[in-house]
Specification:
Distance between the termini: 116 Å
Strand content: 15-25%
Shape: elongated
Number of helices: 2
Radius of gyration: 32 Å
Length: 257
């Protein structure tokens, strides 16, 4: 005899899911779980990419700022040619100075960090680094100084994971003033030659180097990604001049005029 429950169902009746219902629920759960993991993976990759771009941007901007700031102090006197013989696509040699005096003295004679210095910025393709070798002036008078050994001897590394833009564009390019400013209606006015000077710079070409274009690609240090939009291209140009040349006349200016 069956004893009825409060709702008229047998006390011994057992109900549950059928095998088909269980399989459907299992498959549905796996699909939802897979979708959740896919969303999580995409989110993690996107977060990693954004972090890498931010790191590359910060490091690249710091390196470019240091370079540009040093070049902005490279005109020691009117007509002075800051770029030195031997400069090339992966090595920039120039002279700059910081002083509170009316006439710049040697680094050994002025207070710490002041005076004239020769810089040799070297890009090493093997280590993908930018290193600044600084030679303090030890003798001579402005603007012709003599320089001692690099201090520190190993240089100061200020750029890492630095490569050429597109794999071919030189890190440093040098330009001289053109004889006449461009006047084309289809091109912007320019006082510089469109073609870069041949490198390495000779004594005569270095004396005419009135502008330096800096180009490099910066990548994040952590992770070492080189693709998938995780690197940043940088480009900046510094022209050595105390005043802008007259674009309406024939240009005969040298650097730092």
């Amino acid at each position: 005899m069956l004893i009825g429950g409060p709702f008229g169902r047998a006390a011994t009746e057992e109900s549950g899911f059928t095998l088909v219902e269980t399989l459907v629920a299992l498959v549905s759960g796996l699909v939802v779980l897979g979708a959740a993991f896919a969303i999580l993976e995409v989110s993690l990759h996107q977060s990693s990419r954004v972090a890498d771009v931010a790191q590359a941007t910060q490091l690249g901007r710091n390196a470019m700022t240091r370079l540009v700031d040093e070049l902005h102090s490279a005109c020691l006197s009117p007509g002075f040619a800051p770029v030195q013989t031997g400069s090339e696509g992966s090595k920039l040699i120039f002279i700059d100075a910081f002083s509170e005096k009316s006439e710049i003295g040697t680094a050994s004679a002025e207070t710490s960090g002041k005076g004239a210095y020769k810089h040799e910025i070297v890009w090493n393709p093997a280590t993908e680094t930018l290193t600044d070798f600084v030679y303090p002036s030890t003798g001579g008078t402005s603007p012709k100084f003599t320089y001692g050994a690099a201090s520190p001897a190993a240089g100061v590394r200020f750029g890492e994971k630095i490569t050429k833009v597109g794999g071919t564009t030189p890190i440093f390019q040098y330009f001289q003033y053109t004889k006449e400013a461009s006047t084309s209606a289809t091109e912007p006015l320019s006082t510089l030659e469109s073609k870069a000077l041949s490198v390495p710079l000779t004594e005569s070409s270095a004396a005419n180097a009135a502008s330096i274009q800096i180009n490099f690609n910066a990548a994040p240090i952590v992770g070492g990604f080189k693709s998938s939009g995780r690197t940043v291209d940088y480009s900046s140009q510094v022209t050595f001049a105390f005043s802008a040349p007259d674009i309406k006349a024939t240009i005969s200016q040298a650097p730092c005029e």
